[in-house]
Specification:
It is a single chain. The chain is mostly beta strands. It has an eight-stranded parallel sheet, with no helix packed on it. It is globular and about 45 Å long.
Amino acid sequence: EIPKRDWSSDVCSSDLSTFNRTGGTFTHNSGTVSFTNGPYTITPGSSMTFSNVIMDNIGSGSNPTTLTLGGNFTVANDLTIRNTNANSYQITIAGAYTVTVQGDLLFPSTAQTGGVSVSAPTFQVAGNLTMSDSSVTLSSNITFNGTGDQTITKTAGSVSGGTWTVDRSSESAGAAVKLGGTLSTGRPFVLTTGTL
């Protein structure tokens, strides 16, 4: 079951251990849902769309924290993954699932030293990708599939796995995927359709 929370609020934080949607309808109100602490499991069911999502390890415990994704879901705007705790934080997956991000995928810098390891899922990103946290290790597949301009900016962090793909079959005239600076990943970068 979905925990009994005021999910209609503009900013809702769930510090429980499970988000499990087994039926019914979830309609966002253009607010933000934050999944915090852990270990945590998100099982969204079918056709699940959030507005904005924040995944954050804000707890004060001494153990590493894991957030496990148990299904596909869509974020209509921005997905932010960060660690505001000194202990490590891992995003993993319980299957071959995809998170569709219709806005930006963000890994912002925080004042904490805890590492952020994102080994899954596959991300489909229609907006920008920004990595500015030196503690982030990203090994997910990422497909950039927006129609307008998209910018990839990596000023910190590392990319240890996965393939990045530009696949923009509906690209607007004159639009492109652009680099917001020097990009060094050491990983495959594939141009399928669109402009880089």
